[in-house]
Design brief:
Blueprint lengths: L3 H11 L3 H8 L3 H7 L10 H13 L2 E4 L11 E4 L5
Antiparallel strand pairs: 1-2
Amino acid sequence: MLTANQLRAARGLLDWSQGRLAEAAGLSLPTIKRMEGDKGPGKSAAENVEAVRRALQSAGVTFIGQDEPSTSGGPGVRLKGEAE
């Protein structure tokens, strides 16, 4: 499950605005803002979350899950090629 923090961090790694992510994912800016807000992507439609995930992954982001042994700090993100 993606978190709002992961989405914001992924955009930061790519130097993307919320508008750029909305465009890449084919979603509205208010949808991206809601997903990055207090309620997080868990309250969004599954297809919208998947569209955001695909857009960020296509741009080179790798999502690190809560349960992955490579991290003890919880969920995160990194760019492909970094520490892989």
